[in-house]
Design brief:
BirA Bifunctional Protein, domain 2; globular; alpha/beta; 278 residues
Length: 278
């Protein structure tokens, strides 16, 4: 893949664990800066503190068990990307943000996702994971509309290990450019998300828990050892450089991006008009 792409320089930004509203605001602030031509394409690697339930752009807020989430001290945020709910904790999150004319992001959502998935696969291989990106089976009649949990839902192209979903990604294509971000669970109990969501009854919750364990996994479960965030971040940077023919220049968010992220937190990502709009 890298041999067919001309060399390019991107930013590499690694930010410390932060609340969900800040993380989503930072991604959008980068997207706006790219739309103005102020900054180059960016690979951002980050984490979440406290744990945060993120909802897809069009997902109903009624899926959230507000009392349970509050009692656990977790946050809730709404993404600008689609898909279903993810509980962000014990994970590495990546975002790839660039203009529409960046060759690695050009084409349709599926075309650009497939291109980026090669870098994601290489990162997992560097960590010792026999990962695959497989097309969704044509006869798969599983309905996304029925389930609120991202890692239960098959996407067009899954990144899996031993048949279980490992990375959940989503993309938004805006006037300013393209944003794709995704979640790689490193360790911990994936079924914790079922306690952040509303189910008709406890039997339904138990069935969702069972499905999740059958369909998704963590890095630790897949390789039977725990990896630290810095090790995974290093693998991501190495894989994106190699696979996509990039020179990644470590840097930080610009003062303008930081200031805009702070505005977006107040105006949007920490505001109920956005979070609870559906």
């Amino acid at each position: 893949m890298g041999d067919t792409l001309s060399p390019s320089k991107w930013r590499l930004i690694q930010t410390p664990p932060a609340p969900g509203a800040w993380n989503m605001a930072a991604d959008e602030a980068i997207l706006e800066a790219i739309g103005r031509g102020d900054v180059p394409p960016t690979l951002r690697l980050y984490a979440w503190d406290p744990p945060c339930l993120s909802l897809g752009y069009a997902q109903s807020f009624s899926d959230v068990d507000v009392t349970s989430v509050s009692n656990k001290g977790w946050n809730v945020v709404r993404r600008i990307t689609g898909g279903r709910a993810i509980l962000h904790t014990d994970e590495l999150t990546y975002s790839v943000i660039g203009p529409h004319d960046e060759p690695r992001l050009a084409g349709s959502v599926i075309e650009s996702y497939q291109r980026l998935s090669q870098a994601l696969l290489e990162a997992l291989l560097l960590l010792g994971l026999p990962a695959e990106a497989l097309p969704k089976a044509k006869n798969d009649n599983y309905s996304e509309k029925q389930e609120p949990v991202c890692f239960e839902v098959p996407s067009r192209y899954e990144i899996t290990v031993n048949g279980k979903k490992l990375i959940g990604s989503a993309q938004a294509r805006k006037k300013a450019g393209v944003l794709q971000h995704g979640s790689l669970p490193l360790y911990g109990n994936l079924t914790r998300i079922t306690h952040a969501l509303v189910f008709p009854d406890e039997s339904s919750r138990a069935k969702a828990t069972e499905r999740l364990l059958c369909r998704a996994t963590t890095v630790e479960s897949a390789i039977e050892r725990q990896v630290i965030w810095k090790q995974v971040a290093s693998a991501f940077a190495q894989a994106f450089s190699k696979t996509l023919n990039l020179t990644l220049e470590p840097t930080e968010l610009s003062p303008t991006e930081i200031a805009r992220a702070e505005e977006l937190i107040i105006e949007k990502y920490a505001h109920p008009d956005w979070t609870e709009r559906i």
